[in-house]
Known about the structure:
The protein is of the alpha+beta class. It has one domain: Winged helix-like DNA-binding domain superfamily/Winged helix DNA-binding domain (Arc Repressor Mutant, subunit A, Orthogonal Bundle). Helices cover about 60% and strands about 15% of the residues. Strands 1-3-2 form a 3-stranded antiparallel beta sheet. A hairpin with a 2-residue loop joins β2 and β3. It starts with 5 loop residues before the first helix and ends with a helix. The mean pLDDT is about 90.
Amino acid sequence: MQYMPVAKLEAFEKTSVDLAAFAKVLGHPARICILRQLAANGEMPCMEIVAALPLSQPACSRHINDLRKAGLLKSRTLGSNVFFRIDESVLNQFCQTMNLLLHTDS
């Protein structure tokens, strides 16, 4: 996931670029609310997530899709329902990498 022009990205180490892209996905309150809902409730059907947010269904779907593309959400389909849950391993990896990066003695 790249948000800066390539020339600017090349000036930074890959770990920093990857962490910044991941952090950007977390940079919207709707996405934080989605993660909080899932953390509190575990797996949820998409329409329950939508019902819990003060946004339109298309807007919620875009935010859910952004989280899914970043690897933060796993999904499964049951009939006509799509259920989402947090992929804890991806979130934990981000936190560990950020912690290591910030606390490495230079």
